[in-house]
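Hi support team,

I've been running sequence recovery on a batch of backbones for a student project. Most finish fine, but this one hangs at about 90% for roughly twenty minutes before it completes. I'm not sure whether the input is malformed or the queue is just slow. I've pasted the structure tokens below so you can try to reproduce it. Let me know if you need the job ID as well.

Thanks,
M.K.
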């Protein structure tokens, strides 16, 4: 993906004018790899990503070489607004367990609700004019505790039985299909608020963990989520 990234970033000045520094490729890479670049101390919450960083930088690292499959995959990310509580979501969870992949849930309304059409004026088109507003937090994920408990070789964290039961009840009683964008956003906010202390993680960043096979870092306390040795 390096060539299309460079092509895009080299052309953003004509689009964004004075906002061009927001789209510097080096800035994006630094923001995705380190949380300590833009603040004097480690922030208490994951760095937000602006619109373009969410759209083109959602994958923490884009591959510059072939990835070994399946060992090269650390986890799967399910989109809350598209799959939560659905049959497709059930299939994803089952597949992750069978394949041995941890599953996390993320919410990215801007990217997943693109319905702009060729003219750019379709109802529900969320692309901001200067591409820097509407900062989202697509780099915030909620661990799926049911999947995590069942994938080998196991992980270094313990999620309480109560949290597991609440999570599964939430899954069984709320389905995103047919719901409005506003209702989906409210539901995600509730899910995130409830599970923030115990299951909210962010992507790995430079120096976060001693092992490279960890899947994320707890936002609340900085503890790494890693496979057992």
């Amino acid at each position: 993906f390096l060539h299309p990234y460079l092509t895009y970033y080299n052309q953003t000045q004509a689009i964004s004018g004075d906002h061009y520094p927001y789209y510097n490729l080096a800035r994006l890479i630094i923001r995705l790899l380190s949380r300590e670049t833009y603040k004097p101390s480690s922030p208490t919450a994951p760095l937000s990503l602006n619109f373009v960083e969410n759209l083109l930088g959602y994958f923490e690292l884009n591959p510059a070489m072939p990835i070994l499959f399946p060992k090269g995959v650390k986890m799967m990310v399910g989109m809350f607004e598209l799959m939560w509580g659905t049959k497709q979501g059930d299939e994803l969870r089952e597949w992750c367990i069978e394949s041995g992949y941890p599953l996390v849930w993320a919410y990215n309304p801007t990217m997943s609700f693109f319905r702009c059409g060729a003219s750019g004026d379709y109802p529900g088109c969320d692309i901001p004019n200067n591409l820097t507003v509407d900062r989202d937090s697509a780099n915030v994920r909620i661990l799926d505790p049911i999947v995590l408990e069942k994938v080998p070789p196991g992980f270094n964290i313990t999620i309480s039985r109560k949290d597991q039961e609440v999570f599964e009840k939430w899954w069984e009683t709320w389905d995103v299909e047919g719901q409005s964008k506003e209702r989906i956003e409210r539901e995600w906010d509730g899910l995130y608020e409830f599970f923030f202390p115990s299951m909210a993680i962010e992507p790995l960043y430079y120096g976060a963990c001693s092992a490279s096979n960890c899947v994320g870092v707890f936002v609340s306390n900085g503890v790494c989520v890693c496979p057992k040795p």
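--
Follow-up from support: It reproduced on our side and the slowdown came from queue contention, not your input. The chain has ten helices and six strands. No action needed from you.
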